[in-house]
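Dear colleagues,

As part of the handover before I leave the project, I'm documenting each prediction I ran so the next person doesn't have to rerun anything. This entry is a single chain, and its sequence is reproduced below.
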Amino acid sequence: MEADATGLGCPVEWHGGFCATVDDLRRHAGYRAPEFAELGVSLARDGRLDPAMIGDASRSGRYDQQALKRVWHYVARFGSRETRNARAGFLRVRFRAP
């Protein structure tokens, strides 16, 4: 993917992704509402929550999409550097204009 992106002639950078811990979610439960933080806790695996897990929940059809969007807000806002890249293959290529 990186080789293909480099061929486009624009700079390529790696983004470490987003990942939040269960502690992050609980510590900031009031950010959107405690029920969304607890939904995130219920979706977490091994004490961590990332976008792939939220996507899995969305595709399952068992959760309200707006609730999952609010859970995503927690991950994007409060995910810490220490938890990024916790899952193998979590890096994404991000394109930006030169």
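The radius of gyration is 15 Å. The chain has one domain: 2-95.

All the best with the project,
I.
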